[in-house]
């Protein structure tokens, strides 16, 4: 079967089915075999693995996954692509299942239980850039058994996920991702590796999930409300950012007292704080918050809603 990593083969399939790119789905198909091979290597796919692919498109990366994994489940939202996948580009593979659905609506926990005995799976995806963060954070917050996510995202988003405290890219997204996983940018990908060409550069980032978060906090939801408030107005001090936020419900005096207990100056800004420091701050302030939103803090950070 002809590899779709070659541009001429991709063009042939698109012409054969008179396929029209759907802007609403953010469709940009990979047409570079070297990038596809880098993704497979970065994801460390073996014959022991079940892979969940989000957005297979015409099946370009799916072909590579099928050849390297034990089983592939590909979730595609565009119904117009299903005949291409089932009748043409993936018909030679008996280890792939194609699901026509929105990944945000799929019961991934049930899927993993049925197809992989509940053991962690690897996610690989060329994600639509407009919905990158909601998909990634949705997977994290659902606490489904995942070993890693190796995803193509906008380059600047990848840099934000991997950013360290004090850098210009460091923010709420960095902290949310790093609470759940260790990020590693495996490759930068220029626009000419896609059809059609996107307007921005891309990057492949691998997010290796932690067995448990690297920090402990008494209230995960509250900690993320502090993080969001800290970066809503980056030029403000941490004290003013938190005290002026209706979401956190903490007073200026309480924040100052907590910072003093942590040995931090009153003028410190949120971008200087590590994840561990935010966890400590949350624990010190947890008893002082009086306007907390959503007291059911038992699950989920709701981080995806306000990170971009």
Fold and architecture overview:
With about 300 residues, the chain is an alpha/beta fold. It has two domains: about 5-210, Rossmann fold (3-Layer(aba) Sandwich), CATH 3.40.50.150; about 220-305, rRNA adenine dimethylase, C-terminal domain (Helicase, Ruva Protein, domain 3, Orthogonal Bundle). The protein contains twelve helices and nine strands. The chain has helices spanning about 5-15, 35-45, 60-70, 80-90, 110-115, 130-140, 155-160, 170-180, 220-230, 240-245, 250-260, 275-285; strands spanning about 30, 50-55, 70-75, 95-100, 120-125, 145-155, 180-190, 195, 200-210. The strands form two sheets. The chain has a seven-stranded mixed sheet, sandwiched between helices. A two-stranded antiparallel sheet has the order 1-8. Strand 3, helix 4 (about 80-90) and strand 4 form a beta-alpha-beta unit.
Notable characteristics:
alpha/beta; Helicase, Ruva Protein, domain 3; 2 domains; 12 helices
């Amino acid at each position: 079967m002809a590899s779709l990593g070659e541009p001429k083969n991709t063009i042939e399939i698109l012409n054969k089915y008179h396929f029209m790119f759907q802007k609403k789905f953010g469709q940009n198909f990979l047409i570079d075999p070297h990038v596809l091979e880098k993704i497979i290597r970065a994801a460390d796919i073996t014959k022991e693995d079940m892979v969940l692919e989000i957005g297979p498109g015409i099946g370009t990366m799916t072909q590579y996954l099928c050849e390297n994994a034990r089983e592939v489940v590909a979730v595609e939202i565009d119904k117009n692509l299903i005949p291409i996948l089932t009748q043409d580009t993936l018909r030679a593979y008996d280890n792939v299942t194609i699901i026509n659905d929105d990944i945000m609506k799929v019961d991934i926990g049930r899927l993993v239980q049925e197809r992989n005995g509940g053991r962690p799976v690897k996610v690989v995806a060329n994600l639509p850039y407009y919905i990158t963060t909601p998909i990634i954070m949705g997977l994290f917050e659902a606490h489904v058994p995942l070993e890693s996510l190796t995803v193509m995202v906008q380059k600047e988003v990848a840099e934000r996920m991997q950013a360290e405290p004090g850098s210009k890219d460091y923010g709420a997204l960095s902290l949310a991702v790093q609470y759940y996983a260790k990020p590693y940018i495996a490759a930068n990908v220029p626009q000419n590796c896609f059809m059609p060409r996107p307007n921005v550069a891309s990057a492949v980032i691998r997010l290796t999930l932690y067995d448990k978060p690297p920090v402990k906090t008494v209230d995960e939801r509250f900690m993320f409300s502090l993080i969001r408030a800290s970066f809503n107005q980056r030029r403000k001090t941490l004290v003013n950012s938190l005290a002026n936020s209706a979401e956190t419900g903490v007073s200026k005096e309480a924040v100052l007292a907590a910072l003093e207990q942590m040995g931090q100056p009153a003028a410190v800004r949120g971008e200087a704080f590590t994840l561990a420091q935010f966890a400590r701050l949350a624990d010190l302030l947890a008893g002082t918050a009086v306007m907390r939103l959503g007291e059911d803090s038992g699950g989920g950070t709701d981080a995806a809603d306000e990170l971009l």
